[in-house]
Fold:
Amino acid sequence: MHGYDGRDLPGTLPIQGELRLRRSKPDFITLAHGSGGRAAHDLITGFFLPYFDNPILKALDDQGVFPVEGGRLAFTTDSYVVDPLFFRGGDIGKLSICGTVNDVAMCGARPLFLSVAFVIEEGFEIDKLEKILVSMKEASREAEVAVVTADTKVVEKGACDGVFINTSGVGIVPPGVEISANRVQVGDAVLVSGPIGEHGVAIISEREGISFETEVSSDCAPLAGMVDAILTAGLRPHAMRDPTRGGVATTLNEIALASGVEIELEEESLPVTAAVKNACDLLGFDPLYVANEGKLVAFVPEKEADRTLDVMKANKYGESAARIGRVTSSGKARVFMKTRIGGRRFVDMLVGEQFPRIC
Amino acid sequence: MSRLTEQFENPEDARLLLGRITELARASGRDKIQFMEVCGTHTVAIFRYGIRQLIPNNIRLLSGPGCPVCVTPNPSIDEFIELARKPRVIATVFGDMMRVPGTRSSLESEKARGADVRMVYSSLDAVKIARENSDKLIVFFAVGFETTAPTIAATLLAAEKEGVENFFILPANKLIPPAISAVLDTEGLALDGLICPGHVSAIIGSNAYEFVASTYGVAAVVAGFQSTDILHSIYLLLSQVVEGSPRVQTQYSRLVGEEGNPAALKAMYDVFEPCDSAWRGLGTIPMSGLKLRSEFSKFDISGKFEITVTDSREPEGCLCGEVLRGKAEPEDCPLFATACTPEEPVGACMVTTEGTCQAHYQFRES
Structure:
């Protein structure tokens, strides 16, 4: 679960320092509840959380961190339901390993073991399933994790769409490492590990058969190696998160809320490839809200910013890492961006879903 | 960034243009100069670039009716929702229409309740669904302006040729120039200039706006969507205002010609013909909609089912209608950002990213 602390009242959550009443119990689950934007947050904090109330879940980080004898474990779970199952740059198998590895790694933990559960639709081709398994094997090997328990269910045709995969992961948090969305401080530099929006654009172009001048590949990749390199260099980010659904803008808002800080971005320094920019212009999307599957956003003390950036750039998934902004003040939780032409605008969480424009 | 778009997002050019805009705004000696951006894509771009805060205080930018989802009135939406509920029907829509609240429900809610509602990116996808589901009736909600109508026309021409018999549309396409007339006829709305849409103009051509200058004496500039495109267009509009010579100019000349796209227009008028049409907020505007010509009327779903929607109404307290005419700002609406948010939209202008209310909500600062 991604999110922030909704401790005030069920169904009530602070938005930019004010309390706004929201309906916590919708009549139906709609697709908007799965978009990773604010509808999902409302549902999680207002509806789900009260039933599973405990301090570890309540932190609403990407992973639960808890003490065990001799150290701390990080534990996370995620379900993968991507359409199409195979896309440029990856498939549901690679995604299901990388996504969970990354969620474990974002608190500084070293991912070790995974569980995998498949829900497979009757009639699903075995060759496709094998292709998915090969991807999972390769991704696990690269991320140095082992799948140590698994489950398979087959459901009637029409009861699911091809194959759904759930993976859970555990990892060990090294001693002294404290990385959480609520530890960000004024003055922190905001870094992103590479160009944004690639996964979302790759998926939509594949799904809808829209081709752009330059084809965009998903950035799907395991980031545990990059995180390990940062920590091994003695650097101590305050917060890290992988900006998946809802994009960088939503992740930054989550962190702003968790730490109660104001973040200012520089549009000029935001890494966006020409291909993603053109595709987004065409679709009416803002790359800040488009999903990534192989990027991390890090909040680091200013004095460690350049060195962290160097470490990221030395990693094969961080060659185009960039400093995109800084934490300017505390008190009001919000995100601003200085635009390329010198304007300044508010950057909200993803509200609703991004649909391609009609006109 | 690609070189093409980079050329139109150059901070140095932006500074130069802003300097000239400031000089002209001062030279005009006016307390208030009002321009309207007709198109929702321009509204969003203006917010995204932070242009409202950069231009002088005496220039006011109003948002217009150029958002297809926003102007589709509730009776059309209610009718399509009723169609979606029918057995054997697969309702196909552009994603943005899914969440628009009708009088009692939305397509999204109907889908959650079990109706077969599918999001498509083009009417061509809807025909594909028709080919794959010969035992079903596929209905496409034909909304949009001159940008989508030619594709829908081409889809119907292809469906006709192939003999696809289970594909229908609910015609609700609309035309931009008659809506501009209706806005300019609005009492008490003193507009000095229009930022005319880029995409629509690529189809209809800049000559389509001649009446704006000749009949109404209002400046008109067809604008592109990058930051300096918009600043350049504001500069051109201001120059016209200061010179006192309103006319039609095309800033977006890399895409828009005087005559538009003749092939697209031909397809559109081969299949459709203009008719009176009801707009949210603007009422019924003569010859502002498109209906199927008699040769293509077999594709029209209206009348194929017994559907009577009689109690359609706009949500209570919602000011979408005023907002679409430039008569009210979203912040004037008592529901804005309280009862009406993008998660739980009351009015259509809050649903889509290109809606004026959502743009104001998304980029609000408090």
Remarks:
- Chain B has two domains: 1-314, 315-362.
- The CA atoms of residues 84 and 91 of chain B lie 5 Å apart.
